[in-house]
Structure formats: structure tokens, C-alpha cells
Amino acid sequence: MIRTALASRPARAGTVVTAAAGIALLAGCAPSVSDAEEPLTDSSSTSESSTNEESGGGSTGTGTYADGTYTAEGTYATPESLETISVTVTLQDDVITDVEVTGNPQKRESEEYQSKFIGGIAAAVVGQSIDDIRVSRVAGSSLTSGGFNDAIETIKSEAAG
């Protein structure tokens, strides 16, 4: 009779526990199931905002911000380049009723992610209070969100004045 050496029971149990802990740890690194907007938990950002311009409206609703259409630029860094997007939102009673984002990507990969972001941002923010908007990932694009959030902060400052 041939006998094969088997690991002792405590060694097998330790291996199982270690494997389960590794799987649990890696599950925390996985992207979310939905590519929709997710709340941002880190308040730091690698982007900076630029120009702001009010381009219409101006009547004051019942909210904190003046109703109207506002445009601002947001800049964010990618591993390959520094990118800028232009964000235009229409506000009515502090609620975003329309959003338009345009980009000028410097790299092919940036073009892909900006395009995905632009295609999904309206579903994430239209109908929401501007004070509740802070996106971290839209349609799989996370870096573009930094530029968008900075542009929104600039717009909030302009609309409050």
C-alpha cells in the first residue's frame, strides 16, 4: 500500500483561513458593480479649477444659488498628461436641470475616458441638488471626476455671489 503524506489538520485549517482572508481583502479592491456615480469619500483632489463664467439666467430662485446657466473649467492630472474639461450646468432652485461637459483630451486614453464620463454624467447629476454633487466615478472614469468636481465648486461660488 502506498501512503501519501497529507498536511496536518491544523495546517489545512490555517491555509483555508489565510485564503479566505486574502479573498476578503481583495474584494475590497474590486470596482463597484455599477458604473453609475459613487460618492467620493476622499476630500483630497489632484485637480484644480480654472475659469468660471455665468452665461445666462441670473434670476434668483428660492434657493441658495442664483438660477441660471454657469460654465467653469476643471483640470485634472492623469499619469500621461494634464487634462481640462469644460462643465456647463443649468441651475433652478439649487437643482441641476441640465449638464454639458466637453473635453479636449491630450492623449488617446484620456479621450476614451472623457467620452465615457460625458456619456454618463447627466444620469448621475441631473435632478440633484448642486450641494449634493460630488462624483468619484462615472461610467468607469474616475480621474475626470476630479476636474468635474472642481468645476462644480467654481460654479457654486459664482452662483452664490
Explain the overall architecture.
The chain has 3 helices and 4 strands, in the order H-E-E-E-E-H-H. The protein has 161 residues and is of the alpha+beta class. It has a 4-stranded antiparallel β-sheet. Strand 3 (82-92) and strand 4 form a beta hairpin. The chain is globular and about 85 Å long. 30% of the residues are buried.
Core attributes:
single chain; 161 residues; alpha+beta; 4-stranded antiparallel sheet; 3 helices; globular
State the gist of this model:
With 161 residues, this protein is α+β, with helices and mostly antiparallel strands.
Low-confidence stretches: 24-60
Q: If you average the pLDDT, what whole number results?
A: 76
Report the C-alpha radius of gyration, rounded. 23 Å
Strand content: 25-35%
Global morphology = globular
The helix-strand sequence is HEEEEHH
Give the strand order of the largest sheet, numbering strands 1, 2, ... along the chain.
1-2-3-4
Query: Helix tally?
Result: 3
How many beta-strand runs?
Answer: 4
Query: What does the main sheet amount to?
Result: 4 strands, antiparallel
Helix fraction by DSSP (H/I, runs of at least 4): 25-40%
**Distance between the amino and carboxyl termini:** 89 Å
Structural class of the secondary elements? Answer: alpha+beta
Oligomer: single chain
Secondary structure blueprint with pairings:
Layout: H1 9-27, E1 48-60, E2 66-77, E3 82-92, E4 95-103, H2 108-125, H3 143-160
Antiparallel strand pairs: 1-2, 2-3, 3-4
